[in-house]
Amino acid sequence: MDSVEKKTLFSARNLSFVVLFFAIIVSGYLSYLKVANVQAVCIQGSVFDCGTVLNSAYSVFLGVPIAWLGLGTNLLVVALLLLEDRIGILQEYGIVLTFAVVLFAFVFSIWLVYVQAVLIQAYCPWCLTHEALITVLFGLSVWRLWRWFNGMEANEELEVEPEAQLQAQ
């Protein structure tokens, strides 16, 4: 592999920014609902009930709305990604730190899906969308961490090298 980093539009880092853009929109909307105390635009159906989910006892953690925690986590990950190549400690451990934050968000998202499915027995499409975006972000973070542990450039393009190039190395 070339020692020169091959940054492209389709790096795991750049794709993380795209996922986070949408996650911030969703968590921002959910945060707005809490601040403004308004009803969510929601799919009406047998298992979908945004009002029940968003106003349940599980929608607040230690007095802080879950939506605010999601928005804060998304903004924290954006900050880590932006500062990853600018601050010394983040240059060295930024990928690991970002992975740790995203891992926590992913595990918490799994818990929230469980809460909706088993404890509340109602789903919020906005919440499920955010949890799906966190899952994609987790996959990208795993990819970056795996490449970092293997001494590869974590921000290289997501591509599979042809077999001939692999044998030449």
What does this structure look like?
With 169 residues, the chain is mainly α. The chain has one domain (12-168): VKOR domain (de novo design (two linked rop proteins), Up-down Bundle), CATH 1.20.1440.130. It contains six helices and two strands. The protein has a two-stranded antiparallel ribbon with strand order 1-2. Helix 1 packs antiparallel against helix 3 (66-83) and helix 3 (66-83) runs antiparallel to helix 4. The longest helix is centred in the middle third of the chain and has 33 residues, at 88-120. It is elongated, with a radius of gyration of 19 Å. The N and C termini lie close together (7 Å). The relative contact order is 0.18. Residues 1-6 have low confidence and may be disordered.
